[in-house]
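To illustrate the input format used throughout this study, we show a single complete record. The first block contains the structure-token representation of the backbone; no residue identities are included at this stage. The design step must infer an amino acid for every position from geometry alone.
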């Protein structure tokens, strides 16, 4: 009988130790799946490190990956055999990549950053093509703004009467400006029934904006242009948006009747009637402590994604979440790699306890709420030292209520601020619901009072209900400005930055 030393793989298996080695996992589907989680956490941490370089889109996209992929990762990590782990991991990767070209490109980039590769792990993707909806009707695609698409849209919609429904301009990182525009447009083509609203919506996503001029009192009429040096959208008589590129998407359930829709209908294959791809099994056969760890991580990613939504800016401790879960991908694979079930459970239990300790006071009530409300091992909290144990109360970030009479000077202190995002939504009716006009501003503010020179800036939101006027120019995003307030009769009537480059006048309602 062979003499087995303590380091041999056979002895580790028989003693209940890890079932594989780091080298054995290298370049496997499972190793890549864990690496993608760790890369997501790194991206989120970098994007949320300081409000002056805050990147909401990166945070949203990285956290969103793990909505439907967290539980499949745990199921893959805990499968009974190496082939089972690889099979489940490949299924999870295929599902992850099936969302579209942007998601697949993100996976490839992050795999490379982690020193791994997608090569051979995913089936080749077929070129994207126009699709049909459940009725078999051709659907409007997302299309780049080119001279051809601008001409096509001008033929199908009455752009001179278009009305700005929503405009959002935001700084991404430290230098780039991006924007979102929604236009309510009247169809120029006949509709075959009386059930459709009179207007459709044209959604535009702009990248690398170079010029912004907008006035909500001059927001009717649009002209789309594309040239070799970029794209532009004229709004009203004096407004304009200029950017390097833009994508368009008509949100129109009668688009198939438009000229562009009829042309697409002639070349689009019939609707695929094959069964839709099935989401990989979620909780499935996870053990109690593995399920507790998966639930905690899943809920954390949902909270981080919530923190990237415009209305919750600064309300979710994103940095604290990434600190608590740093290295989670590698740790999950290590916990699942234990051969004996009781040791695997102990490893997942220890992992949750580690996350709780790292979360500290900022996440204490959140951990308590998740582990208690879901019924997944609330007793994990009892094994912690008193100084580590979370408080019993649980709080969920709430969207801050608009307070038009608040005094920002008192809230922000005598400090400089930097505009990160400004958005305007006009009063409108959509899907039978009435929406009031509103404005939302994100500001990067230094800590006040500042305790250390390297204290990070924070993100703060200012809401304005029923603004009478909203004006925005590119210069509003140029560096810092003084406190953004003008007070009239002890009530905030205007929000002003950079000598009026951003000027929001509150209505009297």
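Output of the design step:
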């Amino acid at each position: 009988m062979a003499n087995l030393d303590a380091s041999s793989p056979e002895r580790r298996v028989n003693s209940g130790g890890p079932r594989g080695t780091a080298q054995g996992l290298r370049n496997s589907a499972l190793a890549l799946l864990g690496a993608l989680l760790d890369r997501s956490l790194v991206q989120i941490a970098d994007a949320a490190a300081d409000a002056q370089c805050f990147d909401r889109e990166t945070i949203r996209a990285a956290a969103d990956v793990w909505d439907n992929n967290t539980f499949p990762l745990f199921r893959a990590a805990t499968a009974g055999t190496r082939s089972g782990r690889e099979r489940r991991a490949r299924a999870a990767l295929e599902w992850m990549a099936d969302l579209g070209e942007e998601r697949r490109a993100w996976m490839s980039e992050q795999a490379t950053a982690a020193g791994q590769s997608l090569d051979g792990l995913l089936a080749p993707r077929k070129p994207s093509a126009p699709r049909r909806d459940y009725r078999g009707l051709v659907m409007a695609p997302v299309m780049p703004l080119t001279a051809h698409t601008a001409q096509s849209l001008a033929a199908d919609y009455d752009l001179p009467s278009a009305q700005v429904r929503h405009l959002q301009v935001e700084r991404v990182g430290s230098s780039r400006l991006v924007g979102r525009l929604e236009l309510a447009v009247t169809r120029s083509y006949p509709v075959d029934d009386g059930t459709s609203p009179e207007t459709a919506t044209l959604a535009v996503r702009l990248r690398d904006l170079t010029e912004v001029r907008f006035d909500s009192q001059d927001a009717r009429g649009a002209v789309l242009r594309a040239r070799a040096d970029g794209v532009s959208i004229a709004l009203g008589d004096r407004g304009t948006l200029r950017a390097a590129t833009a994508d368009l998407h008509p949100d129109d359930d009668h688009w198939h009747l438009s000229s562009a829709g009829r042309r697409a209908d002639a070349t689009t294959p019939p609707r695929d009637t094959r069964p839709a791809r099935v989401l990989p099994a979620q909780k499935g056969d996870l053990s109690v402590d593995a399920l507790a760890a998966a639930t905690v991580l899943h809920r954390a990613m949902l909270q981080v994604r919530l923190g990237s939504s415009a209305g919750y800016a600064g309300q979710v401790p994103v940095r604290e979440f990434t600190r608590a879960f740093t290295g989670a991908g590698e740790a999950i694979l290590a916990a699942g790699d234990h051969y004996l079930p009781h040791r695997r459970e102990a490893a997942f239990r220890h992992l949750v306890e580690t996350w709780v300790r790292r979360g500290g006071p900022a996440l204490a009530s959140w951990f308590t709420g998740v582990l208690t409300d879901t019924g997944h091992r609330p007793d994990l909290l009892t094994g912690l030292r008193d100084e580590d144990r979370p408080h019993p109360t649980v709080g969920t970030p709430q969207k801050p209520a608009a307070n038009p009479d608040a005094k920002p000077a008192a809230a922000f202190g005598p400090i400089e601020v930097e505009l990160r995002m400004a958005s305007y939504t006009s009063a409108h009716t959509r899907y039978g619901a009435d929406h009031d006009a509103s404005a939302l501003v994100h500001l990067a503010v230094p800590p006040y009072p500042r305790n250390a020179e390297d204290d990070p800036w924070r993100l703060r939101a200012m809401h304005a209900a029923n603004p009478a006027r909203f004006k925005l120019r590119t210069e509003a995003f140029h560096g810092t400005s003084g406190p953004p307030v003008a007070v009239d009769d002890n009530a905030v009537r205007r929000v002003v930055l950079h000598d009026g480059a951003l000027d929001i006048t509150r209505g009297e309602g």
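Structural context for interpreting the output: The mean pLDDT is 83. The first helix runs from residue 9 to 14.
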